[in-house]
């Protein structure tokens, strides 16, 4: 149903005149009459009784007018809210983070950001890297921070923080075992692996491939869905795991975990701020991008 036709109908209803409605809307009387006639044809009922120069709404016209006014009021509220969003930093920011960013990078960023814009509400979704990339691509999230560069087309990515992946185990796991010198020495050790879709897992698979080792060559005892679960299982002595240094460092400092120095080189990665290309962002999202970039430079 065309809004312009509804607007013409409402003016005729209110002014009880086709000519007056035309003057108010700056349209010719034939145009107003055509709009109303099109609505009557579309709905299959007369909307007005024309008694000479007098125009009276039918029962169907009364029903349509009440509904149309509600629609226009709702549209007005929507336009007002969108205008407010564009002129002031209020409303909702739909943000996503993979495990490490959501737990270790976003909280301090959000603390500073919300202190500057206290009227904002942030809805943070936590998932693995693939899940966050997918939701940004679908438009369900405005922005995301993830642990590997997206391969999906239509997603732009800006590198932010750097992180190192480390291979860790509980000291108890090393007791009675020869000290490993290479990755191949760890093939018979129990392993704790992240699930598919994890950025950490993606980097680990690349590392194994470079050493001519497949996951099938390893003794994988546990598959877990988060970095925290991998660390807790490693702390319990359940296996070797590759995790973010950001997450593992407090446990390394306390001697609860140890690094296994078997990698030929440091396994470093970046976290990426992602958004869907071509999406028009509201001020909250644009300001958050600026905030993150400034914080990264600092």
Automatic annotation (TrEMBL):
Indicate the transmembrane segments per the record.
Answer: none
Tell me the Pfam families matching this sequence: HTH_1, LysR_substrate
Q: Which domain of life is it from?
A: Bacteria
For this protein, the record's PROSITE patterns field holds:
HTH_LYSR
Q: Which GO terms describe its molecular function?
A: DNA-binding transcription factor activity; transcription cis-regulatory region binding
Q: Where in this chain does the record put each HTH lysR-type domain?
A: 1-58
Q: Could you tell me which InterPro entries the record lists for this protein?
A: LysR-like_Sec_metab (IPR047788), LysR_HTH_N (IPR000847), LysR_subst-bd (IPR005119), WH-like_DNA-bd_sf (IPR036388), WH_DNA-bd_sf (IPR036390)
Family note: Belongs to the LysR transcriptional regulatory family.
Name of the protein in its database record = Transcriptional regulator, LysR family
Species name: Humidesulfovibrio mexicanus
